[in-house]
Structure prediction request, 979 residues.
Amino acid sequence: MRRSKTGDWAAWAFLAPVTLYLAAFYAYPLYRNVELSLRNYTVRSFVQGGAPFAGLDNYRKILSDPTFGPALLHTVVFTGASLAFQFGIGLALAVFFHQHFPLSRTLRALFLVPWLLPLIVSASTWSWMLNSDAGVVNAALGAVGVGPVNWLTSPDWSLVSVIIANIWIGIPFNLVVLYSGLQAIPTTMYEAASLDGATGWQRFWRITFPLLRPVSAITLLLGLIYTLKVFDIIWIMTRGGPTDSSTTFATWSYRLGFGNLLPSFGPGAAVGNLLIVMALVFGLVYIRLQRRQRA
Amino acid sequence: MTRLLRTVAGVVLTAFMLFPVYWMINVSFTRDRDMRADPPHLFPVNGTLEGYRAVLDQQLPYLGTSLLVGLGTVALTVTLAAPAGYALAKLRPVGGGVLSFVLLIAQMIPGIIMAMGFYAIYLNLGVLNSIPGLILADSTIAVPFGVLIFTAFMSGIPEELMQAAVVDGAGRLRTFWSVVLPVSRNSIVTVSLFAFLWAWSDFIFASTLDGGGDHQPITLGIYQYIGNNNQQWNAIMATAVVASVPATILLVLAQRYVAAGVTAGAVKD
Amino acid sequence: MKTWRAVGAALAAIAIAGGAAACSDDDGDSPQAGSGGGTYAIWDPYPQFDDDSAWVKLLESCGTTAGVTVERTGYDTTDLTNKALLAAQQDNSPDVLIIDNPVISTLAEAGALTTTEETKLDTSAMEPNLLGAGQSGGKTYGVPIGANTLALYYNKDLLTKAGVDVASVKDWPSLTAALSKVKAAGKKGITFSAIGTEEGSFQFLPWFWGSGAQLTALDSPQAVSALALWTDWLKQGYAPNSVINNTQTTSWQEFASGDYAFSENGTWQLANAEKLDFEYGIIPIPASSGGTAPAPTGGEFVSIPAQSKTDRYATSQKLVACLTNADNLLATDTTLSYIAPVAAVQDKQIATDAKLKVWVDAVKAAKGRTGDNLGTKYPKISEPLWTATQAALSGSKTPQEALSAAQTTAASATK
Prediction:
């Protein structure tokens, strides 16, 4: 279709509702948050107004806070490990369910049930299962002779525990998206490969995986954006502790702004903005990779 | 034979994945004094129905509201996202790439920040503590993703179909309505599924924007069992179980159509 | 296509059913007694009470007496502070706010609350030690609806089997000795809550104050001895590792399982205590060398948030006075398992149930957390304190190191 000026106007007519929607509902909260981070807010000035402009003070404060380093490390580890396992397990399951066998459809639907549960319920259930004394996981470990692990109360294991719970919650999303990507690959390709004598493993690596690359890229990017925002699970299971051992930027931001009796909105907003910037960086990397692929 | 083996493997995998859900059901039948039994009971011996009694007495209106909000969010999301996906995929106007990027950024904003921003807007618009307000807020979770899915799918629609419509004298709107939408049935179902599930399990918007409303969704209804000093865990888990039932039914019905949603140009014309 | 229609029909049916269910609750919560005086909003942190409960009916009847309609919303208590601040910012505050007592000083500092002078609320009957949490800078910002505090529940049957005489538990050494006897008998010693939130600080304070330490010096030797008490219990296996993540509810559940001899918990568990399938008793938390340790006061305050329309205060004051008059206090505090903040009503509570005497005495000896003129400094001290207990209990720092770090943080935050 040749691009014409009237064509552009008509196209923007289709895009108008979403654009207005974006401006009204995303721009304003983002602006509020940036503004919150650039001023020195006390509880009083939050309610009454008149907070003095503080420039980058809040950012300086959080960068020099002793929690910053651990929080950054935990955010990277949490996001990286979650993504790797969610994607890997999701892909393996998608490939598995792609081979049609009796009940495959129903089982695939049942895999999405974790998604339906309110996060307070999923996180609480995992908390109960991982309890040091009355948890079923330690009971199972005990049955095979392994000593109890302090999943949620030890600084060494708390991050691992929240990662496990987050992987569990993230598998359905990856499964659905990757499965639909698999379905778009024409079966003729597989038939041709079988004729050439390719094994299942070779079929996967030579055909499935490369053709799945665009879908994988977008799944990983979206997974990254969503995982960076995750805080409910960690907050309910460990509150970011003990001693900040499972604190990520998302939980830190929440704790600063809402998790104690005396909120500090400025630093909380600053950490939130840092989070958005991190996601933005990865978004730009993705666009650059996409452009290079197209070229 | 291999097919049957695969089914068995599938059942085992599903059972493993759903074990925490089983545990949730287990707790929902457990009496308070058995909650912290060491070692834990794998099966609710001396079970109690008091959790379920509480839920069936009190939670049904919340379930109804959640259903309404979920379906409303689906309608709004598809209405907003489908035309946008069509424009970005097929009409490709100048500046479309920028909009796509902005939509990506929009998903990066944490929910609590959005909720706090909305509070002021809603108060001024008068939609605080209302169902339409909550539908609008929940749609912000799903719309950017919806546009992404629609763009990806619709760019895979063969040009011949579009040309045929043009030859028949259809304008862009006609083409969209009569040609593109029917073919995009699968992506509509995919987007609807995501929008419904996200709206169903949303808590942060419900709590900030509908906390005082007459009609609250189930994620807030659960808080009836989270008192200021005491929590009734069997009732909390029972609420989750009861709340999962309608959503699971919808899931099983809809998943047949959740297919080929995201191709992102994997299939070349 | 047929399945598609079937799905569509099913969805429509569900939507209609959903809408019907959602709307059918309207009759339940539409306010009765159409009084023409307007609608007054009351927010409280008791989401466990729904519209049929005695509490909500009480609120509505106070409204009718004052000639107005009451619209009540129950929020999760951890969320209510933010909601109150957000509402105050947008001039959307409720007319009456019932909120946890340590938050009062934060809201007062934000200018979100009125003083009792402004609204002419009468506080003369309230016990001074309980009113203290709502006072700062010489002004009072609300009245307590009831108080609760902590004590040690014990399992009578278990202690008898272990050969422990509970009367011998008078100070820390005797308590630890009792715990070791219980462990020797194959049972578990004590459970409490040391979670990384205000609940954890709340549970630690009786031991902290009982050692003689003050909140202005978190790293004093007495404070270290209090934290060392807890960490030693964990090391010896007298307390379970799960205390690090326990809320007071989950700690109670552990006690209710019958495996634990002692549980540090509060007045509000009295109703649950009656449901235990073993005999229980209560002793006050001992101080390090004998006597009763001062425990922190829990419980909510009733306050009147600042409004731009100041003519609403007169009616709000009537609502609060109605809620806190002697008869209504007795009913409310019985429902919540709180102790009344008025001496005359406390006597009535003891007259009805003699077991409450222990609790009334404990409440009389209790201290407000934001008292001692700490006000909004308290949250800045409490957070480092619970971080320190978590660090010491999880073994990443010694009690001394943990509390020194906490004192540094607290001191710089409260400069």
DSSP finds 19 helices and eleven strands in chain C.
